[in-house]
């Protein structure tokens, strides 16, 4: 299995994970926008136990966004790292922290109903007002 490396801006936090995400997509919700400081967040989902902290475990700060979701960031440089779902242990890794090129690409847009008004989506991936209905 090809492995991918990821790190924060200052380099304190280094992560390693398999090049195999359950999904990849772009989230346009207002909370991802705040957390990332960007128009939207590109994330890849995978089981949390597949993400290895190679360095800087003590530099990872966590913000409890809701009962179910915790956001992880570097306490030194502030880089958004991932969100973690507490019930499932699933992680949504912020793709911007990857140092290697993953095999997959984001394949959908969620929470398009609350996207940044100035942002124009430039691909033809499926768009969902909120979450896809399952
Ligand atoms: Zn950092
Ligand atoms: Zn979001």
Instruction: Calculate the mean pLDDT score and round it.
Output: 97
What small molecules does this complex bind? zinc ion
User: In the CATH scheme, what's the topology name?
Assistant: Metal Binding Protein, Guanine Nucleotide Exchange Factor, Chain A
Number of DSSP helical runs: 1
Q: Which consecutive residue ranges, at least 5 long each, have pLDDT under 50?
A: none
List the quaternary state of the chains: single chain
Relative helix content:
under 10%
Q: Span between N and C termini?
A: 30 Å
Helix/strand-derived category reads: mainly beta
Principal-axes shape call: globular
For the secondary structure, the number of strands is: 10
The SSE string, one letter per element, is EEEHEEEEEEE
Percent of residues in beta strands: 35-45%
Query: What characterizes the major β-sheet?
Result: 7 strands, mixed
Q: How many domains, as an integer?
A: 1
Sheet with most strands: strand arrangement? 6-7-8-9-4-3-10
Radius of gyration: 14 Å
User: What is the top-level CATH class?
Assistant: Mainly Beta
Topology:
Blueprint lengths: L2 E5 L6 E5 L4 E5 L2 H7 L4 E7 L4 E4 L4 E5 L4 E6 L5 E6 L4 E5 L14 E2 L24
Parallel strand pairs: 3-10
Antiparallel strand pairs: 1-2, 2-5, 3-4, 4-9, 6-7, 7-8, 8-9
One zinc ion binds next to α1.
Question: How would you explain this protein's 3D organization?
Answer:
The chain has one helix at residues 30-36, and strands at residues 3-7, 14-18, 23-27, 41-47, 52-55, 60-64, 69-74, 80-85, 90-94, 109-110. It has one helix and ten strands; from the N terminus they run E-E-E-H-E-E-E-E-E-E-E. It has a single domain (3-114), classed as Metal Binding Protein, Guanine Nucleotide Exchange Factor, Chain A. It starts with a strand and ends in a 24-residue tail after the last strand. The chain is globular, with a radius of gyration of 14 Å. By secondary structure, the protein is mainly beta. Strands 6-7-8-9-4-3-10 form a seven-stranded mixed β-sheet. Residues 27, 29, 31-32, 41, 111 line the site of one zinc ion (ZN).
């Amino acid at each position: 299995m090809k492995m991918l490396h990821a790190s924060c801006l200052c380099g304190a936090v280094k992560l390693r994970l398999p090049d195999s995400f359950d999904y990849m997509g772009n989230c346009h919700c207002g909370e991802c926008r705040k957390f990332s400081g960007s128009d939207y967040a590109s994330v890849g989902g995978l089981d949390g136990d597949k993400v290895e902290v190679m360095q800087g475990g003590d530099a990872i700060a966590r913000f409890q966004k809701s009962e179910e979701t915790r956001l992880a960031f570097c306490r030194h440089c502030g880089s958004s790292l991932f969100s973690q779902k507490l019930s499932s242990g699933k992680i949504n890794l912020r793709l911007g922290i990857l140092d290697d090129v993953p095999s997959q690409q984001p394949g959908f847009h969620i929470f398009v109903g609350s996207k940044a008004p100035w942002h124009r989506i430039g691909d033809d991936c499926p768009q969902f007002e909120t979450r896809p209905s399952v």
